[in-house]
Amino acid sequence: MTLRRLGLFGGTFDPPHFGHVAALRAAARTHRFNRIEVTVAGDPYLKRGRDSVRPAAVRLAMAEAAFDGLDLVVVSDREIRRAGPSYTIDTVRELLREADEVDLIIGADLASQLDRWHEASELATMVRVGVVPRPGGAPAIPVGWVSYEIAMEPVDLSSTYIRDTHPDHENLREFVPEGVIPLYEGFRG
């Protein structure tokens, strides 16, 4: 059975946090999607050289723990199973065999980077972009991309912040769903 419209929410999810949860809930409330696929990057090529990324299997387990039970949401390992860098366009091509339309769901902080993504000009012709607001103002969508805002209160939280501040067990509860905590603490490195 072909889905009419699928939302794609991809990322490294190191760790997944309450901002991600809020974004997925807001996307589901739009009633635009038959399903929202959370795709965990196997080889997040844009993050190479920045800081170490936990193993893909750990990030997948954290995403499953964080997003379990959210309306319309399915966590996928498709980018982990695929060899080489995790390119969104490859995932979109696969998903278009399952759905009539695929919309990317991204945070406003990523919107200005869309033109730097692999095969960006072609990707722009294949998807619409649902933009989740982030603190700091309106997103700068590059020319050529069709986009819309997913309404929600911005959440001032990022995975980088969590990794950089090294919160203790109790403080982690402010940032990540309970099921993520043992997985995150088990692989702090």
Q: What keywords describe this structure?
A:
34% helix, 9 helices, Rossmann fold, six-stranded parallel beta sheet, 189 residues, globular, alpha/beta
Low-pLDDT runs of 5+ residues are: none
Helix/strand class: alpha/beta
Helix and strand succession?
EHEHEHHEHHEEHHH
Number of DSSP-assigned strands: 6
Describe, in plain words, how this protein is organized in 3D.
Strands 3-2-1-4-5-6 form a six-stranded parallel beta sheet, with helices on both faces. It has a single domain, classed as HUPs (Rossmann fold), CATH 3.40.50.620. The mean pLDDT is 92. β1 (3-11), α1 (18-29) and β2 form a beta-alpha-beta unit. The protein has nine helices and six strands, in the order βαβαβααβααββααα. The N and C termini lie far apart (43 Å). Helices cover 34% and strands 20% of the residues. It is globular, with a radius of gyration of 16 Å. It is an alpha/beta fold. The chain has helices spanning 18-29, 56-67, 78-81, 88-95, 108-111, 120-126, 159-165, 169-172, 181-186; strands at 3-11, 35-40, 73-76, 99-107, 127-132, 146-149.
